[in-house]
Structure formats: structure tokens, C-alpha cells
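Hello again, I could really use a second opinion on something today. I owe you a coffee for this, so here goes:
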Amino acid sequence: MVVEFLTLEVTPDDGDLGAWLDTDEAHWTAFLARQPGFVRKEVWRSHGTPPRVSIVIWWESLAAWHAVPGGALAHVSAAMGDHEIPVTCVAHEVLRAR
């Protein structure tokens, strides 16, 4: 299993956090849920200002994650419109889980 860990900051310039969450759910989460090998996605919020948001996405394998077509990713990114925010991404291989 592979975990994709994305970090971003939702600033007042990006709009309301709730509106951003709704847009993310409608576009990214809906898209990812249709991908083979997708397991689940969680969105976490830190208590800082502006809020740092972490998106944690579980994939069955690195191959499943990398099989998502790049063109489709670009399309979903564009669909986010003004709510698209640059992210930092780190991947982790799950060695043990209970």
C-alpha cells in the first residue's frame, strides 16, 4: 500500500475553507474514487492560520497510483478553477498497519 501525502495552505485569497472543501470533494475526490487501486482519501486541517490542509490518499500500490493518466489529472486540476492551490507531495510506502 502507498500513501500520497499532500500539504497546502488555504488562504483568504483562495476563498472560504468550506467552499474549497466542497470544490475539492466535487472534483478531486469524485475523480479519485473512480480510479482503479484507489482505497480512500482524508482531508485534515491544522490549527494554524492560515490553515494548513493535509490530504492523505491511500492507494493499493505505487503502480495503481502512477497508472492515473496525466491528462486526466490536468483536466481535474483545471476544473478546480480558482480553488486550485499548489501542493507539496510526499509518498510513503506502508510497511505495517493494524
Q: What stands out?
A: Residues 23 and 80 are 7 Å apart (CA to CA). The chain is about 35% helix and 30% strand. The radius of gyration is 14 Å. The first strand starts at residue 2 and ends at 9.
